[in-house]
Amino acid sequence: MQQSGNEMVGFGDDLVAHGNKTPPIHTAAVFELQQSGNGEEGLPLARTKDGSIDRYGKPAVRGRTGGWKSGLVLLVSQGLVTIAFYVLEASIVLFTKYVMRQTNAEAESTFSLWMGTVYLCSLVSGFLSDYLGRYLISIYAQVFLTVGFGLLSASAHALLKPHGCGVIGKLCDPHTPLEVSMFYISIYLIALGNGACESVLATFAADQFDEEDPSEKQSKTSFGWYFVIASNIGRLISVALLVYTESTRNWLPVFWISTGCVITALVFLLSLTRRYRHFEPSGSPISRIAQVIVASWRNRNLQVPSRGEGLLYRGEWEIDGTRRKTDDLKFLDQAAINIPITQVEEVKCILRLFPVWLCTIWSSVVFLQMPSLFTEQGAAMDGTIFHFQVPPAGMIAFDIISTSTLIVFYDKLIVPLHIKLTKTQSKTLAEIQRIGTGFVIAVVTMLSAGLVEQKRLKYSDGSTKDMSSLHILWQIPQYILMGASKAMVCVAEKEFFAAQTPNGLKSLEMILSFCCSALGGYMCHTILWVVTKITASNGKSGWVPPNLNDGHADRFFFLLAALTMLNLGLFVMFAYRYISMSTQMRDGIEEMEVAP
Question: What is the secondary structure of 333-344 as a DSSP string?
Answer without folding.
Answer: GGGGGTS-HHHH
